[in-house]
């Protein structure tokens, strides 16, 4: 692989330079005293690897590319990183990925709960840093899901497995999208949500993506375009569903004492929450309520803010219904009012609550477990680095508060993170 031009390491290897051994001399980093208050935790570095159509890289190379770029973005020396979190690659994730990157972490996390993985991991990492168990934790993801399908290295799958509780549903042919489609139909039945309102989610996501040069699809679409597309799983046509892309990204969290040495203004982790609710559809009590109803409440309570205080939201959107119901469950509107809330561009870049400002999984990129991309975009927005898609408050001020909420499985899990600028 050619050297990454954004990397601080000019060596041609995709690996990070090797960590010094425990006996090696190096910069000393103070550990917090046991009696100290919990340390504040900031996101100090974010980056994307190459995304979209990436036919000439391995998932490991995308991990390395994203990690190097995030470290460069932070301005910190890589020797400060003593924590590592990764999922989705390798038999012993994150051991294999850490080895590939040349890291020898003393704190690791491989929590895997689908798309919510990264918000949950961010919460775990923030707790570890606050308690003095780690100085800085690197979260990294990379996938060549699209390229692998195109090259015949993998195929799509009908289900995640046929053992355990799933054995009672798999024989009926419930694919992942079918489960989301069933939930959407239930919301339509219970609250009168329309196909046109669901289509508005896709239309707004594409409009947001139009201002993002890194988005995979940027051409505008209409509600009619969404409704007239090929049916995938009733009521979802093709444009109700996320795109398939390659890509990767990384986020670096660090304790407050390292913030003065960073290259960018910090974005603070103010509060996090996580929740799992079910693994089979038969155990899901209400198809119209996602686990974000719990993770969001916990995150807002711990951050000491209300949904009304939030300036923008980054929400997992594998399907249009996910955006709509998560907005309800996070408290941005009442249950059943999500359809009306997403109408008339309210979630666009200039709307009352900008949502998925990069275009989301519906238009920007979706290489698998997309939750980490939500954190990257939220941080870029709070820093004022989003270019033409930059969100502003009334009077032109930068946003101050953002929420990133990831969803895993078929609304099986949720992780929510509230972030604040300055």
From TrEMBL:
SUPFAM superfamilies, per database record: Thiolase-like
Domain called Thiolase C-terminal: residue spans: 273-421
CDD domains: SCP-x_thiolase
Bias type Pro residues, positions: 1-13
Pfam families according to UniProt: Thiolase_C_1
Region annotation (Disordered) ranges: 1-34
Protein name as catalogued: Acetyl-CoA acetyltransferase
